[in-house]
Amino acid sequence: MRNIAVLTSGGDSPGMNAAVRAVVRVGRSAGLNVFGVRRGYEGLIHAELEQMPLGSVSNWVNSGGSKLECARSQEMFKLSGQKRAVQTLRNWDIDGLVVIGGDGSFRGASKLVKLGARVVGAPGTIDNDIPGIDNTIGFDTAVNTLTYCINQLRDTAESHQRTFVVEAMGRHSGHIALHAGISGGADIILVPEITWNEKSVVRMVQRRIDQGKKFHLIVMAEGAGRAIKKPDYGAFELVNYIDENTPASVTVRGCMPGHIQRGGAPTAADRIYATRCGKAAVEALLNGTNGVMVGELNGQMVEVPLKNAVRGSRRIDRELYNLATQVS
Questions:
Q1: Which position among 12, 93, 103, 127 bears the catalytic label?
Q2: Residue at 14 is within a domain
Q3: Cα(301)–Cα(311) distance, integer angstroms
Q4: SS3 of 295, please?
Q5: Which sign does the torsion angle of CA 72, 76, 81, 82 carry?
Q6: Whole-angstrom Cα distance, residue 231 to residue 247?
Q7: Are 163 and 218 found together in one domain?
Q8: Is the pTM of this model over 0.90?
Q9: What one-character DSSP code corresponds to residue 315?
Q10: Residue 127 designated active-site
Q11: H helices within 184-227, ranges in order?
Q12: Using one digit for the tens of pLDDT, what is the confidence trace for 96-135?
């Protein structure tokens, strides 16, 4: 093996740059030429590659987003696009590819493997929803960012005796909402994995008001509406429902931090984890491994077949959710 390439795909997550840095430096120290692919699969299809010397990734470890840039490629859904991507790897004599991304990125990686490419994945997504591992790169940072937002809202909520509904990212899983909700002291946490309904939320708010509580913080995953068969039901729909079904004295506001949860400098935990994933990905390629994702499980770095990494979403820890309801 002489040449490897690395790309970031799908939605960006804090720590992606740290992972790329590790791929470059571990790869170079092993005597490999390392190429960066711009704009994910879109850049791979259109041959947007550049060689990355050691100095090219200086100061990347502390940077958020993706310096290689991300893109969602419609062409990768087509066999013709997949074949063009593989042909690019052949034209550039790339012996192995590291794909940093989430489940959609790994589905694309699986297609390339079937066409003869050697690919290893590293889990870069804030959603923390990849099966077979405990954490994904960017999750810890996203939780810390949302916790900060909740802390800021608490001050104004208490000052004006308001009920706030905060929408967390997580279309299919509630990991961010659950973890940030606990760390931010939320009164109610709503996630896609646990059934709930609007009436029960109103009852909980009213019960707390009757007990003397003057303000409330509700953290709701963006996909929580799936639990009530309403996929598009978000924070502002719940705000309207609470507002219409509580006394006029109850003031309700919605807050959508949105893509703020993806940005910012990665936490120390994400930088370290991303570095470990980058190293493990290069080592997997050097060992001749193909079609796997590297990640941490029970404190150990493991390799998970890509086909297993895209089988649904990893669900939240039910025990942790039960704890959240006990302490809220």
A1: 127
A2: yes
A3: 20
A4: strand
A5: positive
A6: 28
A7: yes
A8: yes
A9: P
A10: yes
A11: 198-210
A12: 999 999 999 999 999 999 999 999 999 999 999 999 999 9
